[in-house]
Amino acid sequence: MEDEYLKGIWNSPNNEIENFFNINDQSFETIQIKKAKSKLKSLLFPKTIGILLGLGWISFMFMLIYFCVLYTPMSVGKFFFVGSFSMILISTVLAVFLYVKDIFIIKQIDNSESVTITQRKLATLQFSIMKSVRILWLQLPFYTIWYLNYELIVHGSIIFWIVQIFCTGLTTWLAVWLFKNINYENLNKKRVRNFMHGYGFYSVIQSLDFVKEIDNFKNDR
Amino acid sequence: MDNQNNKKELVKLIQENKGIVFKICNSYCHNKEDREDLAQEIIYQLWKSGKTFHADQKFSTWMYRVALNVAISFYRKSKSATALVSLKENLKDIEDNDYENADYENEYEKTRKSLQKSINELKELDRALIILFLEAKSYKEIAEILGITETNVATKISRIKDKLKQKILNFNN
């Protein structure tokens, strides 16, 4: 089968093309309006929601810390409360910052750039949510210690301490493991893939795979 | 392209090159609704990207870049969500088409269908490459559109072409 034969078939006159669409000024306006509205639901939408929720959470955390620092006396309980929520606040601020950065990148995406460049940027954006999630996981152990106070530390029962150490230990191990392992370099590790798959991050795995595919495509592998 | 005249000019250029949009939509979509939706998306993105087009550029090169980028993004977005439904719809589409065309289908028509089916089975980027090859674009232009080297284009085309021909023969037999 010759190349020219295939090209001839591909470029042969086709009535379907004529009937596919007929664009005029009016239909052009309609498409613009329709698509401009649907764009709001695309990549930008979940990121914007993430930022708004993040800002709400930051404000709440900030108020808790602010009132605790100002209106409660110095104590062991205050140390744990302010310390824990400060760490949660910092990691949430970092995650929101990454989301804002993504929005700037989305705004700069240019479909008229070469296909591999644009597609790589888009795929990278899809798995960039993992960067934020990794940081957010780091706050997990702090949710298990913010309520500790002098009474609990000195007079806590054995069962309390067993549960407390188990929960804090487990969440610390989990947070550190996730932070270290969930990244681009570890994509090929079976347990990392299984974990991400199991927790609904299938689209993230797909995006990571596509980035690899693009890199291989560019490097002729 | 931000005034009325430019808009008219763009509409005219899109109308003249609508074969490109049609072929790309056909290669990246399973069913009629998706094809129409993708065509609208491509037209919208061509308008939005209008300011990046310069007079010294070849319109079709610029248009291929935008259309392929939009098509690949659209395909990837809808791929997982509609995989099961599309498969059923696609099978039904093919059966209906086969039935309607059974009377006048000849070898040429059969190969045309097999060619389209074979292209639709390729990976997203390979599909873009073979579309550009079949559109008789030069290696230099393909390299510019896809963002890879000319040598890479030549190597890949030869590899994909063999794969494609084999698929067509399998479909035809």
Strand content of chain A: under 5%
Indicate the low-confidence ranges of chain A by residue numbers: none
User: What does the overall shape of chain B look like?
Assistant: globular
The whole-number mean of residue pLDDT values of chain A reads: 84
Q: In the residues of chain A, how many domains can be counted?
A: 2
CATH topological fold name of the largest domain in chain B: Rna Polymerase Sigma Factor, Chain: A
Task: Count interface residues per chain for the largest interface.
Answer: A-B, 43 and 58 residues
Helix content bin of chain B:
over 70%
CATH architecture of the largest domain in chain B, please?
Orthogonal Bundle
Q: What is the general shape of chain A?
A: elongated
Elements of chain B, N to C (H/E): HHHHHHHH
- Biggest sheet overview of chain B: none
Termini separation of chain B: 50 Å
Considering the protein shown, what is the CATH homologous superfamily of the largest domain in chain B?
RNA polymerase sigma factor, region 2, helix turn helix motif
- Under CATH at level 1, the class of the largest domain in chain B stands as Mainly Alpha
The secondary structure category of chain B is mainly alpha
Averaged pLDDT of chain B: 81
